[in-house]
Amino acid sequence: MKFNSMHKLFLCLTLLTLQFLKAQNSFQMASKTSTANIVIDKSDAKVVEIAANLLANDVFNITKKKPEIVNKLEDYAIIAGTIGSSKWIDKLINSKKIDVSTIKTKWETFKIILVDNPFQNIEKALVVVGSDRRATAYGLLELSRQMGVSPWEWWADVTPEPKIEISITVDNTKIYGNPSVKYRGVFLNDEDWGLQRWAALTYEPETGDIGPKTYAKVFELLLRLRANTIWPAMHKSTKAFYFYPKNKEVADDYAIVIGSSHAEPMLSNINAEWNHETMGEYRYDTNSESIKSFFKKRAKETANYDGIYTIGMRGEHDSPMIVGEDDTDSQVKLLEKVITDQRAILKANSKKGEHKPQAFVPYKEVLHYYQSGLNLPEDITLVWTDDNYGYIRQLSNPEEQKRIGGAGVYYHTSYWGRPHDYLWLNSTSPALMWEEMLKAYQFNSQDLWILNVGDIKPHEYNMELFLDMAWDMAPFQNNTYLKTHKQNWAKREFGEKYAEKIADILSANDVLAFKRRPEFMAWSQVEPVTKSGVTELSQFHYGDEVSKRISAFNELLEQVEAVKPNLPEHRKDAFYQLVYYPIVAAANQNNKWLYAYKSKFVAKQGRFSATAFAKESEDAFNTIKAETDYYNTKLKNGKWNHIMTMQPRFLPVFDKPDTAIPASTNVNDLGIALESYQMELNNKVINSYADVLPVFNAYTKNTYYIDVFLKGNQTLNWEAKPEASWIKLSQSKGVLNIENPEERIYVTIDWNQVPKGENKKEAPLGHDYQLIPPSYKVNSAINFSSNENNHKVGVSVFNPELEDLKNFKGFVEDKGFVSINAENATRKTKGAEANWETYEGLGYTNKVAVALPRSAKSITDASEILKDSPMLEYDFYSFNFGEVNINVQAIPTHAFFEGYGVRCALAIDDAEPEIIDFQTFGRSDAWKQNVLKNAAIKSAKGIVNKAGKHTLKIWMVDPGVMIDQILIDFGGWKDSYAFPEETRF
């Protein structure tokens, strides 16, 4: 298309108009020579001054020019203030220069407005107006965000991008807030090995503890993340928050609300503050007056400060409350008396007419009391908890959702306790946290969200994600926004060029951690502490799960090493903290154990490579040690010394593992081991059964491996020759020596060359997968030679030409099972109220099928299931028939509330639906295994009445159930940690 002069003129005018409009809506925070000063009212809240200074420092860090904080009007300035607390803001409202009707009286809501001629002789001003003191502070720090400053500027050393000028675009119509969750914050917990030592020895040695200086930096971070609440550190290693009078004053300066955990009633810290010698026993049935005196003291001390008071009582050290009578009725009555007395104390020590926010946490045995009829006043906020491993135990039912006090959630990304701690790295799936908190939000838990972040580091991304959701849940209603959020986060921290790559690295690590957290890799447990156990990962079935996990982590290590040198120098320290150390530590924690398991396994086969695997395990341990030392002593010249530990609680999983070496190296022989066999090939043993690879299936296009290895410490040449041209090897010859003691050869089939079996309409009936009739099976071999020794490995190919499979789209039996990823349904049928959808980022396959919406009713009657429930259908083809086990793996969530379960129904073909339930109760062994593995597996029997085409059907029984994988087992599934890879046609 050619443009004439009129077209060109029109385009030029359009461009000029757009540029003019942009200029009209932009404000220059800093020019080449100067900056806009920040005008505040001295009578406004202290947090407004704090936020103004943070913004001024941010401008300076970018431009090396610092705005002044002034209390008088100036031309072309930023005017910031709170409605009713700033004379400048109130004058602008009264003169109708700004309209605050959309934010006035709302909670933590602000506007950023570009105002022409706001006052006489002032041409233009950028006005930040807040409905309350925190809103104004958030508004000032929103300008920092728009300048490109990360909330982690100090806490993760995300140095701002240098610029000569700063301009921001202003949308006068935009309203920031009202937040989705009223109180949003974190719990500093299990701080003994990181945060407390860092504060005491590095950052605040003058206090020798987590004191006001440290808390000021924590509160700054919370403001930048638009949070407003903290549960302070409370272990015995740290003195109680109120031990230091300045702590509460700093919290008030930063407008941070102080709360306390389920074990700390009335803002008290029983661990640190209860003195048995002077106060007696901590039990309410025999010593209530002393306990009430303690509560009164704290209520008076905090009367003029923002606080959320935990109501109720537990015992010392997070233990059950001690009562005289060991029956539930007595315990409930005593707890009701505790609550009545606490509320009376609060009322007596509050300003007239003021209601202090109160929270009740039904955690552990307290949940049992609540479920047993505890009379809880309506204005108290119910704070539900997860099971410590990321799965919320229950939420408010429809009646509870009507409570005036509302509800909230206390959630963990760090935990000390049974069945095993995870206190070191952030290994909680962001997608799981999103799914659980979205569920909580949808059931009206919107009043208080607290995230247990341990030492803050290295929980940075999950902490920000949690608080971003709490600030504005709207974009997070869609699962796809999770990926966008992570990419935007990486873009802000590291620039656009590597943002997608970094997000992908972190996501791949999340998937691996979901399958098994790094802290769980020793297969040990705690309380009591057990020694390291035997891995459930198979070392010879399904491609060798141990080696596949090693490969996955080594690939991540390569990727993160490739990105690191290409980043700008001023972002490398941030990359180290936010990406590099978490990935390197997780990878080497896995490799440390995985290589140790390999050394023990191959040593039994006499492989010299056991020595090499032992060395790899030791190297991984030493890498963790070296990187942790760098984090503490060299990063930012020791700024973070003592913040990071590689062995919290000194548990066995953090030790250097035991390894093994071969019994003898005084041999000179070639060893061969095949996939699916625990023992190596031995041609000297008749019928050794370890001399034939698993059957290659034309419909699944298998790949199998053969390991060739050195049985001594001599050099050996080896060669492999297939007897058929259609057998393809990844390597056909090589040299083994002490530097290269073993090699893995991958065997595939050229399906264009392999002979076809008989042309039949249907499959052979009722035959074991290893006993397929000769007319369907093609046999050949691979000959290995070395040092005049010869070995033969059998190759069998199942390659029939079946009419039924010519246009088949679905899943096919292979080696006696059908393996299915739940998201890959052949068909989906909508239900009366619900449907099956796909969530990304969850499960072993990184996708799950989930029944939504969660508000749908449960369907338990078989006839109603068939009629009204949404259905997933999976077409599959079997070569066998008879009774099968249908194994279904789900995400181990809990029922929403009483009357629901975590159920689905299933059937093969036209059989009656059978209901299975993934729900666990308490701390049962099933629950322990589920949370260690992030998987719940239930089985049902089914009948495949003939070889050929069939359909597995899965119906929703309860909404919210998330199906990960399915395995239809004809008897061929061997031991493995995860289901075998999908047998998709």
TrEMBL record:
It holds the Pfam family GH115_C. GO terms for molecular function: hydrolase activity. It comes from the Bacteria. Residues 810-982 form the Gylcosyl hydrolase 115 C-terminal domain. Keywords: Hydrolase, Signal. SUPFAM superfamilies: beta-N-acetylhexosaminidase-like domain. GO terms for biological process: carbohydrate metabolic process. Residues 1-23 form the signal peptide. Gene3D superfamilies: 1.20.58.2150, 2.60.120.1620, Chitobiase/beta-hexosaminidase domain 2-like (3.30.379.10), Glycosyl hydrolase family 115 (3.20.20.520). This is Gylcosyl hydrolase 115 C-terminal domain-containing protein. It comes from Neotamlana nanhaiensis.
